[in-house]
Amino acid sequence: MAKKLTESEMPTADYAFYGLVWAGTTLTDRVDRALVKAHDLPVSWFEVMLWLASSPEPVPASTLGNSTLLSRSQVSRVVDALHNRGLVTRTPSARDARSVEVSLTEAGRTVFAAADATRREALGPVFTGLLDEQDLEDLERVWRKLKAVKAAQAEKG
Length: 157
Description:
The chain is mostly helical.
């Protein structure tokens, strides 16, 4: 039987990177399964709804493409699917005739609230219930550092 590499057999940076990938994949899969089972709502749809629910105004579709972990074409497909289910509206932008703005409908807000409760319930035993406030702050500090590098690179073009 093949053995697994242990933490001590990998350089620290490699093991830390593996840990981030493992955690992200594991938690995303757990949430996706819970959301699909309870609401027929893939995690990619939830992600778009999360950004929309956080905004008091309609959000340009291009902003969703820049904010989510999805590609712009994926965002477009997700918005189409959510629109077909009556969960979002698409309206022409008053600021840019080429742009569309997206917002949650009342039905979308209701579905989002239920899905968000499901997400929190799915993560409780394996994430938020295990980590204390300092752990969560440490994780936030790390991802903000990583995200800042990406933002700086995007500004440079």
